[in-house]
Structure formats: structure tokens, C-alpha cells
């Protein structure tokens, strides 16, 4: 296994990008580009990229969105068009900088929604889409979960857990998530415009105990894209961490089936 770190320049700041590739040389396959969740970053994927690289024989690429992890601070607030903006902006710059033409989009939570948008906007180049705990719309269950987590981070010392990964950007990272999803003006947001444009095969994971979204999100994605649905039983919002072996095995088998 070998990995490589690089930086991609944008008009607003630098993006931190890391890629992993198994040492064994196999047939060239489209790389998997990973999109992290609302509080995530490259480091918080932990060992998943390495395990996916070994299991799939593909190059795995992950990057910290602007304002997250090791990327530069974001100069502004995140807009309500955050999903579309990522697909048409920095995602394109990362692809171009790493010379990735065909790709598989994979994202967790809000990163899952961003991967849907990436698959839709770049549909002639996206050969597969994998979503994990993706939000397809704003539902009361999601809002309640965000509100409870916001209250938890308001307790003394809790924000330090985010500072470990985001440094001085931690408060911005938290606000970018909570203040967007709790805003009344965001209540009508949906993935529907992007789901209708996805043309590639889709694999969609969702835990039946997800604290931030019911299975209605999975059903919405499946109905719009004819996705292969995977309900992770007894699993919460992070299947790749809670049931990693089953998660990776399912992804590996599905990717083989679409080649």
C-alpha cells in the first residue's frame, strides 16, 4: 500500500487531498472519490480508504472540503446550495488536478448527497455511485438529531473533540452543519433535482437505527435511481465504522458486478 498527499489550489484557498493505491498492479479501474460527512475530514475516514484500496484494487481519493481538516479556512458561511456548489466547484478542481476522468462517487451523510450531485453533474464520467446514510430531504428526525448534537457540543470541553481534527476551524465546522440544517429556509431542500439526473448504477447503504435519518431517505434514492438498497440492521449513522467488514464486502461485490 502506498499513499500520496497533495494540495489543490482554489480561488478561496487550498484543499488537502490524499490518495491510496495497493502495491499490487491489476487492471486499471475508475478511482473512488470519497466525500466526508458534515463534521468529517480525511483523517476521520480512519482506515477505510486503505481497506477499500486493498479490497477493490482501485485508487481511493479523499479530500478535505474547504474549511475542514487540513484544508484552508472557508472565507464565508456555507450556502444552502452547498451540495450543488461542491459538485460544480471544488470537486471538479480536485478531479482535474489529479487527472481523473472516469470515477466512482462515494459519500457519507451530507457527503452522500454531494456524491449524488457529483454523479448528476458529471454523469458522462461517473461510472458508479455509492451513498452511505445520505440525506435526500429534510425530515423532523434529522432536525431533532442535529439539534441534540448541537446541544451536546455546547457543553464545556466538547468542542475540543472537533479541534483535534479541524483546529481553529472547529466552531465554523459545527456551525456549517447545525445552522444550515436547523435554518427554516433550508426546510424544503431535497436531492430530487440531482437524483433525477443520475445515469450510472447506484448502491445505497442506510442503517435502520440511524440517529439522523429514517429509511425514507434510502427509499427515496432507490425510487429515483433504481439503486441497489442495503439496509444495515442494528446499525446507526456510520455503517462503515459500526459494521466495517460487511460494509466493505458489500461494496466490493457490487463494484465487481458493474464492471
Briefly say what this structure is.
By secondary structure, the protein is an alpha/beta fold.
The succession of helices and strands, N to C, reads: EEEHEHHEHEHHHHEHEHH
What fraction, in percent, of the residue positions are helical? 25-40%
Regions with little confidence, pLDDT below 50 for 5+ residues: none
Radius of gyration, in Å, reads: 17 Å
Number of helices: 11
Label the overall shape: globular
Q: What is the β-strand count?
A: 8
How large a portion of the residues is in β-strands, by DSSP E?
15-25%
Strand order across the biggest sheet? 1-2-4-3-5-6-7-8
- Mean pLDDT over the residues: 96
Q: How many angstroms separate the termini?
A: 23 Å
Class based on secondary structure composition and strand pairing = alpha/beta
Main beta sheet, described?
8 strands, mixed
Amino acid at each position: 500500500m502506498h499513499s500520496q498527499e497533495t494540495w489543490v489550489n482554489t480561488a478561496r484557498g487550498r484543499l488537502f487531498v490524499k490518495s491510496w493505491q495497493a502495491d499490487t498492479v491489476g487492471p486499471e479501474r475508475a478511482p473512488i472519490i470519497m466525500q466526508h460527512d458534515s463534521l468529517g475530514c480525511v483523517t476521520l475516514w480512519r482506515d477505510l480508504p486503505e481497506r477499500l484500496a486493498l479490497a477493490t484494487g482501485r485508487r481511493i481519493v479523499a479530500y478535505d472540503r474547504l474549511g475542514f481538516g487540513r484544508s484552508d479556512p472557508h472565507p464565508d458561511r456555507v450556502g444552502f446550495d452547498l451540495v450543488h456548489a461542491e459538485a460544480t466547484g471544488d470537486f471538479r478542481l480536485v478531479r482535474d488536478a489529479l487527472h481523473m476522468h472516469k470515477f466512482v462517487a462515494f459519500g457519507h451523510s451530507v457527503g452522500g448527497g454531494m456524491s449524488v450531485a457529483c454523479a448528476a453533474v458529471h454523469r458522462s464520467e461517473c461510472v458508479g455511485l455509492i451513498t452511505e446514510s445520505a440525506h435526500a430531504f429534510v425530515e423532523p428526525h434529522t432536525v431533532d438529531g442535529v439539534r441534540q448534537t448541537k446541544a451536546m457540543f455546547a457543553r464545556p470541553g466538547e468542542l475540543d473533540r472537533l479541534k483535534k481534527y479541524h483546529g481553529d476551524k472547529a466552531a465554523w465546522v459545527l456551525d456549517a452543519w447545525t445552522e444550515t440544517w436547523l435554518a427554516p429556509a433550508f426546510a424544503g431542500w431535497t436531492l430530487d433535482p440531482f437524483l433525477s439526473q443520475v445515469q450510472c448504477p447506484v448502491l445505497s447503504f442506510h442503517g435502520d437505527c440511524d440517529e439522523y435519518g429514517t429509511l425514507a431517505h434510502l427509499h427515496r434514492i432507490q425510487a429515483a435511481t433504481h439503486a441497489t438498497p442495503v439496509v444495515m440492521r442494528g446499525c446507526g449513522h456510520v455503517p462503515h465504522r459500526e459494521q466495517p467488514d460487511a460494509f466493505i464486502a458489500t461494496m466490493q461485490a457490487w463494484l465487481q458486478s458493474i464492471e
